[in-house]
Amino acid sequence: MLFDPRPKVRREDLYDFDEELKKFTKALDEPMVLVSGLRRTGKTSLILTGLNTSGVSYIYFDLREGARSYADLYKLISRGFTEFTRRWSGLRDHFLRVLSRLRGVSIAGVEVSFSWSSRERPLLIELLDAVNDFAERINRRIVVVFDEMQSIRGAMGTVLQSALAHSYDFNKSVTLILAGSEMGVLYSILQNPESPLYGRAYVEVRTRKLSYSEAIDFLTKGFAEINVHVSRNEIEEAVRELDGIIGWLTYYGYLRYRSIGGVEQVVREAVALAKKELESFLATRVSSRYRAMLKLLAQGVKEWSELKKELERLEKKEISDRVIHDILKELRRHSIVNENNEFTDPIYRRASLEL
């Protein structure tokens, strides 16, 4: 169903993206694939659909919630391994046999868990080496997905990136897929000379916003599929409000399907969610200054000189050009605004007005 709010896994449920899907599946024999794109533009759906239609064996790590400790990180990793053993029952015994040789690994049925202590937990390098060993034993390539890779930050992020660099160099039966929506952060992981992954070649597949006509077509086909009549005017209103962000359009279609609400309801819920995401972003920064900048941008102030003038008026003191530069750079790195200081998602613009 086009309006299923969960990530798509079947080709018939994935709207268009033929070129992106073809490029993705063709790259599955490469050492590393980068799947990038704005939030809610279908990265996870593209990945899972491509993997399932290709019939490859894969381990999927969902890193969206991030990790504040190694306990958090190893929980996310154990969840991915457990899902793999459940999904690929025919390979389970071989895989668990390889994993069981590592320190700090516990296996109960199909459940895989790890010790969290620094002395006992398996190294991430060891886990990826074990995946490669398993792949060679069964003579099959294994794809390992790290979704929202940039969510693992700081020292843990460096450890993870070092493990991936090691796997890239030495694990010839493993393909790494890195996905992320904060594209500037993701690119810095791969292109910063100080990053462990610097210098490794990769194939990039980018998801995109739907054009106006594509968004209209998506909603029209989606409503026809579920036999729900919605006027052309309402569909056009939804596209104007939600732009070509397929995640928001899907959510709108799903709520309409469930008779929960229309465009206004979706916008309210979407803004509330976007506001929560922005608050999380602001939590580790000089919050008041970033809030002011986001509000100014949301009000349509885009010129550098005007932004500086308004921030100085609000703070009642002089602000250096460097400060303005750093704030805008950070907003771009996290794909909140583009190079023209415009919001990449209209919902984020609305949410910024409420900060």
Automatic annotation (TrEMBL):
Location of the MCM C-terminal domain: 287-341
Keyword ATP-binding in record: yes
Domain ATPase: 18-247
InterPro entries in the record: ATPase_dom (IPR011579), P-loop_NTPase (IPR027417), WH-like_DNA-bd_sf (IPR036388), WH_DNA-bd_sf (IPR036390), WHD_MCM_arc (IPR048907)
One family name in Pfam for this protein: ATPase_2
Recorded GO MF terms: ATP binding
Keywords of this entry: ATP-binding, Nucleotide-binding
PANTHER family according to UniProt: ATPASE DOMAIN-CONTAINING PROTEIN (PTHR34301:SF8), DNA-BINDING PROTEIN-RELATED (PTHR34301)
Protein name: ATP-binding protein
Species for this entry: Ignisphaera aggregans
Lineage, uppermost ranks: Archaea, Thermoproteota, Thermoprotei, Desulfurococcales, Desulfurococcaceae
